[in-house]
Amino acid sequence: MIAKARGTVFLLLLVTLCYNVRGQCEGEDKSETGNAKNDTLTAILEVPDEEESNEFKKQRFVPRCGDDFLKHVLVGRWVHNSAFLRGGKKKKKAFMIDISKKKRQLDKDMKSVWRLRGIPEDPWKSTTNCGYYRLRESNVRRPPIGTWCDPKGPRPCCNNKLLGYCVSAQAGSCSCTNCADVRKLQHAELMTWLPYSYMCKWKQFTAPEACDVIEHSPVKKLYIVGDSYMQSMYIGLLMILTGKPITGFWKKGVISTEQYVKCANYGLNYFKDCRAMIETMDDMKYRNSLCGDGRNVTFKAEFRKYYHSRFGPQFRKLIKRLAGKRGTYVVVGIGFHIRMEIDLAIRHFMAPAIREVSLHYKHKQHIPQSRRWPRFLFSLPMDYGLLKPTRHLKEQYHTKQTKFERGMRSYCRRNSIRVLDFTPLTKNVHTFDGVHYGIGVNNMKNQIFLNYLATLKQYK
To answer: Alpha carbon 6 to chain centroid distance?
Structure first.
């Protein structure tokens, strides 16, 4: 009798389990099992509704990198992509062949930039003197640059970046703070940024994922404002959003032959007529590639070339128009064109614009600065490279740049403005003209920025 009862209980349990897993079994009693909504197995297998699905999708994109993502992710180094090789010998060989091919193309494009920009095509050939103030011959299209040691010669290290001598690589002669070692320079396009902390987990997004990140963030309209660094960041964002690493920022309409030659390779960031090709997503040539499928996104991104304090009035008018509009974000960066003068950056550019936001919220003093619109982020100037024209050092030398950065950090902290410091990304990577950085660096800037957006809460 007991054995028969146990058999009946087991059969009932089996029928219930079968119903919940597959929704159908022969001989099932729907009247008894159809209301088992609180069953653990049912809850696990239940398909979430649309709202839950969106929240789940958003959580997949949120990086795990300590309490302050931007602070931790930028403490790292560039690692060559070959370090991440997986698979058999055949696959690794094919990968290395592809890497070598890309490097040859990058070297070719770099020399093309040198030729078109008037930079000597052998900028590092010295075996004796070196430094920014060991001037090369002047060129009518380019101010004089410094002289640098031959990385393949017997004395590849410059012992003083300002006015030094080429020395051997022995006894740590290349490791001093003011030394220069051309052998360390690599193309960021062949590398990946890796934070030192193994706890820092973040993602490099595809075009559809990048769109999802922005659409699940508070951002409805993004303005990137400032100089050529910010312009490069803007076109780099369009490249990610379209999945086209070179032509994604092209403007619809006729592309001139000159633009096609300059803007169809890795050297595009180093030419004004490439960077200035587009200022709004509405003018995109490959709009149908946006997000990988050409979907109608819920956000917009625009660029404003306000690179000097004399554009302060235009910047102020823009912010006045945006004041109080939820979902507006402004990423702004100036510095080099105002000779790192902190007074010009604050009093004549940032402060008048911030004042417009304060005036808008004049009768809403209960709302703190950190919750007012638009939200601002200030991007600090990036470090320059070895090919920078020497005459600019007097206006933009490292000590002055450090002082400028310190002043802007202090100002931004007082006004609840987040600071973006991408200078770590400039270490030991090529800049074809000594000032601007290529697709690799700007892609990584935007990937880090997108991960930051993934950490934001909707309309907090």
So the answer is: 64
C-beta neighbour count of 88 within 10 angstroms:
7
Q: Token digits for 107?
A: 């070297």
Q: Please give the Cα distance from 61 to 451 (Å, whole number).
A: 7
Q: What is the DSSP string of 300-315?
A: EEEEE---SGGGHHHH
- As a whole number of angstroms, the distance between CA 131 and CA 182 comes to 12
Write the burial class of residue 212 (CB in 10 Å: 0-12 exposed, 13-18 middle, 19+ buried): buried
The CA distance from 17 to 23, in Å, is: 9
Q: Which helix (H) or strand (E) holds 150?
A: none
For residue 109, the 8-state DSSP code is H
Q: What is the pTM of this model?
A: 0.85
Find, among 311, 312, 322, the residue nearest to 361 by Cα. Answer: 322
For the CA atoms of 18, 21, 25, 28, the dihedral, rounded to the nearest 10 degrees, stands at 60
Q: Judge residue 366's burial from the number of C-beta atoms within 10 Å of its C-beta, 0-12 exposed, 13-18 middle, 19 or more buried.
A: exposed
453: CB partners within 8 A, 6+ apart: 213, 214, 217, 219
Task: List, in order, residues 6 or more apart from 207 with CB less than 8 Å away.
Answer: 240, 241, 242, 243, 289, 290, 291, 292
Domain boundaries, the chain: 2-46, 81-188, 204-455
CATH topology (fold) of 204-455: Rossmann fold (3.40.50)
Please count the CA atoms within 13 angstroms of the CA of 401 that sit on its side-chain side.
18
Contacts of 147 (CB under 8 A, 6+ apart): 126, 129, 130, 131, 134, 135, 136
pLDDT digits (tens, 9 = 90+) for 192-244: 999 999 899 999 999 999 999 999 999 999 999 999 999 999 999 999 999 99
Distances in Å between the alpha carbon of 339 and those of 106, 295, 306, 348, 393? 31, 42, 15, 14, 10
Joined tokens for residue 219: 């951002």
What pLDDT, in 10s, does the model give residues 39-63? 222 222 333 344 445 555 567 889 9
